[in-house]
What does this fold into?
Amino acid sequence: MSFYKDFISNKVIYEEILEILKYNLSHIKVKTFNDNLNFDTNLEVHATYTKEQILASLGKNTIEKQYLLREGVWYIEDKKTDVFLITLNKVEKHFSPSTMYEDYAINDELFNWQSQSRTSIDSPTGKRYVNHRDSGNNILLFVRENKSEDGVTSPYTYLGPADIVSHSGSKPISIVCRLRNKLLASIAVKVEKAL
It folds into this structure.
């Protein structure tokens, strides 16, 4: 607390930081906005987040306890929400043959996603996915181009809520989602580049 007071009381440093923040705010390249869910996430569509930030925003991680999420899917039962963490460029070094899913943007509204290879269309999870609108479940998409860049884990871009418009197959299920918020050009370029 003392550091904070000392920091704020130093007028030169305080004004310098305000100038930097104002400059950065006026040069934001991507406009973010609320995801309009029926619960508060503190997440903004088209912003980038680490996996840990996503878990904290959705109530799984706390200061006292960190949840270890090893897979790219997560169901939050009390929020009736499925979270899909998607890496577009899958390299054999980081992904096994059974996890080289075909995930890609079809256009600025549609996204193709494949379920885990063990998920059948008749399983409770498969039924929850394809019937999500009837049951009031949310689907949230988070995408990153690569797992890491220069040895640093890459963050995800939050594409926001989506609705399943079609599906085919089983183990894995191929699902086409319609994004409720169109991809911005800068995000779409990253997605196309990854294909």
